[in-house]
Amino acid sequence: MGSLIKETFKGLFKKKEKKRIWELDAARGVCIIGVIVIHLVFDIRELFGISFETPLWFDLLQKYGGILFIILSGICITLGKHHIIRGLIVAVSAGIISLVTLIMFDRNDGLYILFGILHLLAFCMLTYGLYRRLPWPVILVLGIASIALGIYFKTLVVEQKFLFPLGLMYRGFSAGDYFPIFPNLGYFMVGVVIGRTVYKEKKTLFPKANENNFIIRFFSFCGRHSLLIYLLHQPVFYGVGSLVMFFRNLVKN
User: Is residue 193 pLDDT above 80, yes or no?
Assistant: First the structure.
C-alpha cells in the first residue's frame, strides 16, 4: 500500500519531459554550423590575410542562411512559452556582443555590431506578444508587408544615423553583422505562420526518422545550444588565431 501511494505521488509530481521536434533542432544546428564556417573564413582572411575564392554553396549560405535561421526562430516561438524571458536573455547576449565589439574594434573598421541577428531576434521575441493572438492570415499579410518595406528601405539613404535598426542606412554605414527590423521581422512572422499552420499539432513531421542517427543527433545538439555556440565560437576562433599569429611572429624573428 505504501509503495502504491509513493508511486502515485511520483507520477503526480514528476515533470514530464517535453518531446522536441527534431527536424527544427537539426535545421537550427545546420544554420549555426554555417555561421561558424562563415566566421572562420572571415577570420582567416582578416587575421592571416589569406585571400581565396569561396564555392557557390558558401555564397548562398552567407546570403540566405540568416533568413532561414530567422524563419526557424519564428516557427519555434509558437511551440513554447516564456518568449519574454527568452527575449530578455537574447537581448542581454546581444548587448554583451555590442559592448565587446565596440571595445575591440575601431569604429572606422566597420566590424562592430550594433544591430546583429541577436538584436533582431530579441526584438522579434519581445514584440511577439503584440500580434500572437491575431489570425495567421493577418500575420502573413503583416509579414509580407514588412519584407516589402525592408526591400524599399534598401533603396534609401537617410541623414539620421539613429534609424539604422529599422533598415534605413545613412551614408557610409557599415557593420560586422547587420540584421535590421525590416525586412527581417517579416521573415520571423512567416515563421510564426508556419508554426501556427504546419506545426499546429506541435509534433514532428517525420516521426519515422531515426533520431538516434549520429548526424541527426549532432545537428540537433547544436540547434538546442545555438545561442551558447554563437556566443563562444568567435572568442575561441579569435584566441586560437591570436596564438597562431604570436608563434608565427616568434618563428619569423
Answer: yes
CB 70: neighbour CB atoms within 10 A?
24
Q: Which amino acid is at 104?
A: M
Alpha-carbon distances of 244 from 35, 67, 100, rounded to whole Å:
22, 33, 22
Question: Could you tell me if 139 and 131 are in contact, meaning their C-beta atoms sit under 8 angstroms apart?
Answer: yes
Q: Name the pTM for this structure.
A: 0.87
